[in-house]
Amino acid sequence: MRAVRIEEFGGPEVLVPVEVPDPVPGPGQVLLRIAAAGVNRADALLRAGAYHRAGRPPLIPGAEAAGTVAAVGEGVTGFRVGERVMALDGIDAPGFYAESAAVSAACVTPVPDGLDLTTAATLPVAWLSAWYCLRGLARVAEGETVVVKAAASGVGTAAVQIAARAGARVIALAGSAEKAAWAGEFGAADTIDTSRYADEGEVEEVLLLTGGRGADIVLDTVGGRALGRSLRETAHGGRVVSLANVALEPSTLDTRDFYPKNIAILGFQLTNLQIHGYDPRPDLRALAERVAAGDYRVPVETVLPLDHARAAHERLESRDNRGKIVLRVE
């Protein structure tokens, strides 16, 4: 079968189309014939050798996909050949930049009617992360104020909608006026172009918009120095959810920014959550049904053929994209 493989760590040019043996489902596995695979920031970190769970090349990247069931392994029930499903990269699963993949049945969820496979392929990472962080960890409630950082990203556009539909007031932060305005189209009450401010200017703007109180929830999708700002933007008794460090820099915190305000700092990492027993299927099923019903809008900006994975990563790392990037498997 065709796949895209990382032969050595490096830039987008190390993504090489190759022919590899067809996978065979083992016990407890589903063979997925892939129709589309989502492209995520973690894929780029894996390719560069900067991802915390990166093995050694050769590696097939790709943490989310959708397609149809081609076969099932011993002991698998509840799936039929030809059924439309989406899959999340499991603990030891191969990547999804390929025509097929054998993946644990515990990582496979049916795609509801009314949801196309391209859109379904974008849900298991960014959207599920936003869903779990806001609903499962921070427990967003009606009337609360939520700050979403990098609000024009995949996680960001999902988080803005999930929080807004829960009845929260959303303040969306993004790195340009255009991205901030675009994030506002998904239900944010206020937007902030962070490129206009130095570090403390961003904090002051959030405090100004909240009457000096701060936000009930800050979803920090940036990490590094941004985490310290998140703490200063949070109200007494609020929650900061830290789920990334795309800044790839240390986070230096002043404990006086959070303990006097009784702030809860909540960490999230999807794969590690699975390692410790989290079953993503109920949340992913509920989320997919909401998307199929039209409650949320999933912006897909770019769809490229599988062999154009390099161009997909170049687009992702330009930081100019608005919406998800997807590889189509023909």
Give the CA-based shape. Answer: globular
Q: What is the helix content?
A: 25-40%
Number of helices: 10
Largest sheet: 7 strands, mixed
Low-confidence stretches: none
Order of helices and strands: EEEHEEEEHHEHEHEHEHEEHHEHE
Q: From the alpha-carbon coordinates, what is the Rg to the nearest angstrom?
A: 20 Å
Average pLDDT for all residues: 93
Give the beta-strand count.
15
Distance between the termini: 12 Å
Q: Report the structural category.
A: alpha/beta
Task: Provide the β-strand percentage band.
Answer: 25-35%
Structure description:
The chain has ten helices and 15 strands. With 330 residues, it is α/β, with parallel strands linked by helices. Strands 3, 4, 5, 6, 7, 14 and 15 form a seven-stranded mixed beta sheet that branches. Strands 10-9-8-11-12-13 form a six-stranded parallel beta sheet, sandwiched between helices. Strands 1-2 form a two-stranded antiparallel ribbon. Helix 7 links the parallel strand 11 and strand 12. The protein is globular.
